[in-house]
Amino acid sequence: MKLCRFDEDRLGIVIGENVHDVSSAQDQIRAAARYDMKGDAVIAALPAWRGRLEELASKSPARPLREVKLLAPVARPSKVMAAPTNYTKHIEEMRAQKNETHRGLSSSIGEAGIFLKANSSLVGPSEGVPIRFPDRRSDHEAEIVLIIGKKGTDIAREKALEYVAGYALGLDMTVRGPEDRSFRKSVDGYTVLGPWMVTADEIADPNDLSFELSVNGQTRQNSNTRSMVYDIQRLIEFASSFYTLYPGDVFFTGTPEGVSRVNPGDEIEVRSGPIGRLTTKVRAHRAEI
Ligand code: MN
User: Fold this and answer.
1) Which of 41, 133, 185, 215 has the smallest CB count inside 10 Å?
2) Is residue 168 a contact partner of residue 161, using CB atoms and an 8 Å limit?
3) Which of 45, 71, 97 is the last residue of a domain?
4) For the chain, how far is it from start to end, CA to CA, in angstroms?
C-alpha cells in the first residue's frame, strides 16, 4: 500500500497514477489519539486500520496524482534521525573536497553516531527547497528513508525489520560549512520526504534497493542500499540503543557518492523502482534574489 498526505493535510492511498482520499479515517484516528502521545497517530494505527483504509480507498473517487500537492507522508514524527557517512565512496568524496566542505576527515558511522534533523525542516515534494544562503553551497543527498511503525528500544538486529512501517525517498539537503551538522541540515525545507510511504510488505529486501538522483535531468547519484556500511537492521539496532523509537519516526539511511550543489531554479528527482519518483523544485528563500 502506498500512503500519501496531500493538499491541505489530507490522507490518501495511491493506486496507479491516482490518489484516493481516505481522510475520514485520518480524522477518526487522530480524534482517538492522546495529545501527549509520542509519534504519529496515523502511522501507529496502520496495522489496525489497514483493511478499512483499503476498503475506503476502493470507494473513494480517484484524483490524478499530478493535480494534488504532495506533502511529507508523516505529519508528526517524534524525531528525524539520519545516518552520516554510511556509504564508503561518499566518505571518500567528502575527504577529497574537505577544503570546500569545511569538514575534517569524516569518521565512521560507529564513531560519529546518528544525528538529528529538526522536525520543522520536514516538507513534501510539492513544497520545494528554499535556499537561504545563495552564496554558500547547498547540496542534495539522495537517501532511502525508513519510517518506524511501532515503539521500541534496544531492538535486536533479528527483530529490527518488524519495527519498520514502510519506506520512502528522501533528500537530506545540506548547507556545507563549518557549523554543527544538525544546524546546517535543519534549514526549513531541507528534509524532503516522499512522494509517499510504501508499506514494508511491498519491499522485498530493503538492503537491496537501487536508487538514483538527477538534477535537471542529469544523473548525479546512482547507487544501491547494498553499499551501506550499516545496513537497515544495524541502523535500527544502533539508533534504538540510544533512543526509544516511536511510530512515525523518520530515519534517513545515508547518501552515496555524487552529492553536488543545487541552486534556485533547479529540479531534483529521486527514483527507486519499488517506491516511485520524488520530484521537487529548488527556489530562493527571498523572492528578490
Ligand atoms: Mn545525509
Assistant:
1) 133
2) no
3) 71
4) 41
Both 16 and 146 in a single domain? Answer: no
Among 29, 45, 71, where does a domain finish? 71
Q: How confident is the model at residue 288 (pLDDT cuts 50, 70, 90)?
A: low
What's the pLDDT tens digit per position in 86-108? Answer: 998 887 888 887 766 655 556 78
Which residues have a beta carbon within 5 Å of ligand 1, which is an ion? Answer: 141, 172, 255
- Give the pTM: 0.96
pLDDT at position 221: 98
Burial of 142 (0-12, 13-18, 19+ CB in 10 A): buried
Residue 33 CA to ligand 1 centre (angstroms): 32
DSSP 257-282: S---B--TT-EEEEEETTTEEEEEEE
Bond from prior residue into 247 cis (ω within 30 degrees of 0): no
**Phi/psi at 137 (5° precision):** -85, 120
Place of cell 553551497: 137
Amino acid at 164: V
pLDDT digits (tens, 9 = 90+) for 61-85: 999 999 999 999 999 999 999 999 8
Report CA(91)–ligand 1 centroid distance (Å): 11
